[in-house]
Specification:
GIY-YIG endonuclease; Arc Repressor Mutant, subunit A; Rossmann fold; 7-stranded parallel β-sheet; 6-stranded mixed β-sheet; 31 strands; binds adenosine-5'-diphosphate; binds zinc ion
Length: about 725
């Protein structure tokens, strides 16, 4: 094969202006050595920049005299697999973001740096603390260091010094001023999982069929398979079996879970089955540990990678399968940066590039996914029953308006109280979920359950305290806060908000015989605290586990026979077109924690609007019923999956942000978007953050919006963020 002479390079700078491929000559001595995915140093203007080789060719595309040469490769081996370079290209196009930023996802975690030339023991890591310090005017070296860190955030001292062409005294000076911190990176420390025993199971008939379907599709067209199985139906066992087959055929697998810290039990099962062939990507690990894992993965030393969202980029060289467990979870959407990807789509694309298979698993699939399954874009495997003929728990819904009318001012309904009383003195356990989805402020009438909603959009209005007004986050509608309930004229209108701490207190007072544990953001801040709390609960050190959404997911405690849900419909009020879906999912998931062992389970759901279909369908375990009803709404309102919603946010100085947003809207209209498919431009619901004004325009489209990739240039001070299917509109 003839050696390629030219390389297409993406420079590692976070700016729209350089978001394109630059061609460089490959010096003779590096020809054949530099491959796609290689990190290289290139001359750029008067600077030297790092970049990534994304193309190799013999076609010269720039004027010969303008052509510059790559200075040197920065790593021995390419940092990024060729298929991941392609994936990054696709992401940049699909999500209208920067190619260089997409490539960042493919690099070693956090360090985002080829580390093999650095010793294996320790290395010094520089972390940017203050991105906008007041540096002395002529402190040029410090400024260069700062400039690089503003892009990188964090990097190895050795690399930084080489790039900034300075000495470590510069770093010490910056450290003194509090601009950066210097830390040690350690390597090689074991990931902690306590493997459970791995019982030999005989697959149920349903599980067998699901496994067969997946394996067959793997040999065939490779369409994604949606595994829709009720809670406790043995989905995890299906994943384990399929992965076993994948490994036997010499391939490798990625298992994605919504939040790694929340799923210790699932991790243990993978560890028990695949022993040291599995590694868990855990953000709580030190940078060195994560880097070490990354190298092992890339070098083919592990075959199964379990992790959250970003593990979809794990550089397994022989990838054959990606599993997304709880595929409907919103944590699968990336909410930061210029590339706001949906993990499900990325996984499907990645597998398409390498001939791999995707399995999406859930008891409550995202509406989009089920829709695709019904359209035959995905295949559908169903596990409609729990294993060992265990019944699904009985769900009772209590109307809290009635309780209020009867003078019950406590947090607990009569029914929940009875059930809790019945626990005292037994070995059975309960989980109580306080539904606090989102902290959006809405106003609720405690007498009739009314929540003020937008007349146009079918979402609740959000209370903005500063202005004392209610606003819709989807359209321009806003109104003053009324003093009385518009439906029943009651004055018991109030913002809803109790915390888990108050709940624990109240429980302690009313049921002194029940020991409690609390699982929420507060109690799990310390590293390892989450797992410790769950372990204590598993050992029976407390009878009631209280928590937020965290307790809804994936937990498997056979002694739990009671689940209580407080404010079940709170999440219906979240200003989000998916609020019904979220509520249905949450209730189904948390109910699924009950009765997983020999003893049957009960669920008591407290709600202000008990007749809402999301609650009714969850009560009757009727996913399909829910789907049919909700998909009808989506169709009639032109929401996903029928049409795509894109949010374009411009933030910057007042006039400039508005101007940019208007220019973009005008551009879209000129490119063929109908005026009626635009909402805005108007100020975002949160109109100003840190002195930057925020304007947005919402676009509905029937397919990918090509025009997003060629938006007009805007003022350099304005930041444009494009979000496909945004989760929130703040
Ligand atoms: P899901 O992920 O669908 O909620 P799990 O995979 O966690 O369900 O399975 C629920 C429980 O049933 C687990 O304790 C698991 O070990 C057990 N289990 C799974 N498959 C079988 C089987 N075929 N026979 C017996 N027990 C099983
Ligand atoms: Zn009312
Ligand atoms: Zn509205």
């Amino acid at each position: 094969m003839k050696q390629k002479r030219y390389a297409g390079v993406i420079v590692d700078v976070r700016a729209e202006a350089v978001n394109r491929i630059f061609q460089y000559a490959i010096p003779e001595r590096y020809q054949g050595q530099i491959e796609i995915g290689h990190r290289v140093l290139v001359p750029f203007g008067r600077r030297k920049l790092e970049g990534y080789v994304v193309e190799l060719t013999n076609e010269l595309e720039v004027a010969e005299q303008k052509l510059k040469a790559i200075i040197k490769p920065l790593d021995l081996k390419p940092a990024i697999l060729p298929s991941l370079v392609e994936l990054a290209r696709w992401m940049a196009e699909t999500y209208a973001g920067l190619f260089s930023e997409a490539l960042q996802y493919m690099l070693p975690p956090a360090a985002r740096y080829g580390r093999e030339r650095v010793g294996v023991k320790t290395a010094q890591l520089v972390t940017l603390l203050d991105p906008n310090p007041a540096l002395r005017k002529n402190a040029w070296a410090q400024r260069r260091v700062l400039e690089i860190l503003q892009v990188r955030g964090e990097m190895l001292a050795a690399e930084l010094l080489a790039l900034a062409d300075t000495s470590s005294s510069t770093l010490r000076a910056l450290e003194k001023q509090g601009v950066i911190s210097l830390g040690e990176v350690r390597v090689e420390r074991k990931v902690e999982v306590d493997p459970v025993s791995d019982p030999a199971v005989v697959l149920t008939e349903q599980q067998r069929q699901a496994v067969d379907l997946i394996l067959e599709e793997m040999q065939g067209q490779g369409k994604p398979v949606l595994l829709h199985g009720v809670t406790g139906s043995g989905k995890t066992e299906v994943y384990l079996q399929v992965i076993g087959e994948v490994l036997r055929s010499g391939k490798q697998a990625i298992v994605l879970v919504p939040e790694i810290a929340l799923t210790p039990q699932i991790l243990n099962r993978f560890a028990a089955r695949f022993k040291d062939r599995v590694t868990v990507l855990h953000s709580a690990l030190s940078l060195g540990e994560r880097f070490d894992q990354w190298c092992k993965i890339r070098d083919g030393q592990v075959d199964v990678v379990v992790g959250a969202r970003s593990a979809v980029f794990a550089p397994l060289p022989r990838l054959g399968l990606i599993v997304l467990d709880e595929e409907h979870e919103r944590t699968y959407k990336q909410e930061d940066g210029s590339i706001r990807y949906q993990t499900r789509e990325v996984a499907i694309k990645r597998c398409a590039l390498v001939g791999g298979q995707v399995v999406l698993g859930s008891a409550t699939p995202a509406l989009e996914s089920y829709h695709k399954a019904l359209q035959s874009e995905y295949l559908l495997a169903e596990l409609p029953e729990r294993v060992e003929q265990r019944p699904l728990p009985k769900i009772e819904v209590v109307d809290m308006r009635e309780e209020f009318a009867q003078g019950n001012r406590s947090m607990f309904s009569q029914r929940l109280r009875e059930e809790l009383d019945a626990l005292v003195g037994t070995r059975r356990q309960a989980i109580i979920l306080l539904n606090r989805r989102g902290f959006a402020n809405f106003v609720l009438c405690r007498e009739c359950g009314e929540v003020l909603g937008c007349p146009n959009c079918q979402v609740s209005l959000t209370y903005h305290k500063g202005e004392n007004r209610l606003k819709c986050h989807y359209c321009l509608h806003q109104e003053a806060l009324p003093s009385k309930c518009p439906r029943c004229a009651s004055r018991y209108l109030r913002q809803f908000g109790v915390g888990t701490e108050q709940l624990e207190e109240a429980l302690g007072k009313e049921f002194p015989g029940l020991k409690t544990l609390r699982l929420d953001a507060d109690t799990t801040r310390r590293k390892g605290a989450h797992a410790a709390i769950l372990r204590q609960f598993a050992q029976g050190q407390a009878q009631v586990l209280i928590g937020t959404q965290m307790v809804a997911k994936g937990l498997d405690f056979p002694q739990v026979t009671l689940v209580g849900v407080l404010a079940a419909d709170l999440s219906l009020r979240f200003p989000d077109i998916r609020s019904s879906e979220r509520t249905f999912q949450l209730l189904t998931q948390v109910a699924g924690r009950s009765g997983r062992g020999e003893l049957p389970g009960t669920v008591v759901v407290q709600a202000y609007e008990p007749n809402h279909f999301a609650i009714e369908m969850a009560r009757s375990h009727d996913y399909l019923g829910f789907y049919r009803k909700e998909i009808g709404f989506r169709r009639s309102l032109g929401y996903p999956p029928f049409r795509q919603l894109v949010r374009i946010l411009c933030s910057g100085p007042k006039e400039k942000a508005e101007e940019a947003c208007r220019a973009i809207a005008a551009h879209l209209v000129q490119q063929g978007t109908a005026q009626r498919d635009l909402v805005g431009p108007f100020p975002a619901p949160v109109g100003r953050i840190q002195g930057r004004y925020r304007w947005q325009v919402l676009v509905k489209s029937d397919g990918p919006l090509q025009s997003l990739n060629a938006l007009p240039a805007v003022d350099g001070e304005v930041q444009v963020t494009i979000d496909l299917d945004p989760l929130h509109m703040l």
